[in-house]
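Private note to self, pasted from the team thread so I don't lose it. Backbone tokens:
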């Protein structure tokens, strides 16, 4: 599978790497404090003291002893009494994430991060560094020697096959998967093993007597489109190893989301200030959710009538996209850093240190896994109502500037206040 430079760099086509860090959170702790964690069974989970936390990842030493992702801490300790359970440190994880992506980025500017521990790298134009195998080996070696982290790398002509290749050998795997390899390597596997096909879709395919990737590759495309819509066409293409989606360079993705408002008059009344912050928190978190991002830091901006501007910020223990949490932090910052009798002309909220929602879902589960689904369902319902009926469809009591019953009578709102239970004043 070594190949030549010309074989890997055809006149047309691409070469894509998928770099997947192995047992990333545990590996980071082992690299950062080898004297404490090297070679021993570890797991990262929340609520360690209550033994209720969910294990997000575990070291390969722990996996060999029966521990697996998704177990509670108590279940993991039953499997492996010597298991060392570590509280998460997302600042540390981001530090190592940036470091391994910086190494990859030095071989091609076409880097697309898809989570905190994996990325695609288009090296079609990186011939000067050698063959794709040379580049993959060098990246893998540098990540291991410079950062102390293991990773698996898939090499393929597209993102789909690169992703599937990186999953084939862990830890420290290096796998090439060409189009011509697809029939031999993939077609005998169940459909659910195809990246992008979940359990429910695989069950629907079984009802059509399509059990393997090979059967999916040979299926009638019109029939698949009738049953699955445009996804049916994609599934057939994927089963044949075809994927033309580009590697998008997103390293310059938005690093903050903010909104400010110049007030119609100078304000000093604290209830008016709270109402403005509530509206600002609602606007910025809604934009955040649309981008499927989460924020670690809340910053407020205050401008005085004489145009003096100050900013104050706070980093949160966990990331958030929820209006009520941003509102409370903004109000707390205001009370801590501003004397209530001093007038303000402008107020703003900016959310910083953004991460993809997919990357942060596990972090939320660590600290609030029992309540989070209910809260997310409520927020999703409110967003859907407002998407369908307009921004005024759902308001909180604190957003209203006149008698709520009068607004309802005048049809200025079309929904009930689903959020009112969240609107306690800061400190309550």
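Design output:
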């Amino acid at each position: 599978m070594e190949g030549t430079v010309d074989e890997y760099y055809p006149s047309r086509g691409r070469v894509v790497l998928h770099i997947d860090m192995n047992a990333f959170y545990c590996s980071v702790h082992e690299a950062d404090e080898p004297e404490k964690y090297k070679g021993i069974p570890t797991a990262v989970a929340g609520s360690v003291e209550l033994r209720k936390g969910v294990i997000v990842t575990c070291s390969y030493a722990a996996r060999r002893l029966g521990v697996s992702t998704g177990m509670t801490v108590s279940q993991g300790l039953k499997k492996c009494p010597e298991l060392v359970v570590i509280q998460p440190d997302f600042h540390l994880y981001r530090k190592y994430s940036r470091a391994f992506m910086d190494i990859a980025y030095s071989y091609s500017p076409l880097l697309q991060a898809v989570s905190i521990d994996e990325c695609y790298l288009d090296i079609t134009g990186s011939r000067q560094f050698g063959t794709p195998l040379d580049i993959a080996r060098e990246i893998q070696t540098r990540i291991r020697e410079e950062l102390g982290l293991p990773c698996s790398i898939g090499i393929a002509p597209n993102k789909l096959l690169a992703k599937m290749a990186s999953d084939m050998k862990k830890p420290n795997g290096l796998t090439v998967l060409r189009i011509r390899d697809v029939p031999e390597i993939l077609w005998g596997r169940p459909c659910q093993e195809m990246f992008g096909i979940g359990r429910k879709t695989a069950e629907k395919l079984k009802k059509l007597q399509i059990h393997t990737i090979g059967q999916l590759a040979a299926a009638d495309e019109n029939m698949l489109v009738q049953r699955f819509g445009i996804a049916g066409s994609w599934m057939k293409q994927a089963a044949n190893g075809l994927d033309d989606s580009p590697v998008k360079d997103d390293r310059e993705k938005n690093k903050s989301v903010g909104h400010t408002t110049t007030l119609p008059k100078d304000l000093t009344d604290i209830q008016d200030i709270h109402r403005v912050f509530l509206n600002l928190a609602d606007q910025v978190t809604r934009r955040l959710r649309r981008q499927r991002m989460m924020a670690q830091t809340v910053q407020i901006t205050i401008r005085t009538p004489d145009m003096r501007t100050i900013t104050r910020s706070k980093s949160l223990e966990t990331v958030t996209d929820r209006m009520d949490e941003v509102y409370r932090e903004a109000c707390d910052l205001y009370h801590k850093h501003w004397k209530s009798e001093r007038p303000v002309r402008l107020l703003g909220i900016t959310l910083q240190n953004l991460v993809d929602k997919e990357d942060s879902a596990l972090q939320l589960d660590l600290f609030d896994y029992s309540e989070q689904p209910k809260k997310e369902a409520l927020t999703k319902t409110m967003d859907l109502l407002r998407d369908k009926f307009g921004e005024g469809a759902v308001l909180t009591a604190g957003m209203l500037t006149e008698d709520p019953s009068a607004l309802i009578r005048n049809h200025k709102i079309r929904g009930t206040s689903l959020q009112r239970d969240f609107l306690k004043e800061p400190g309550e």
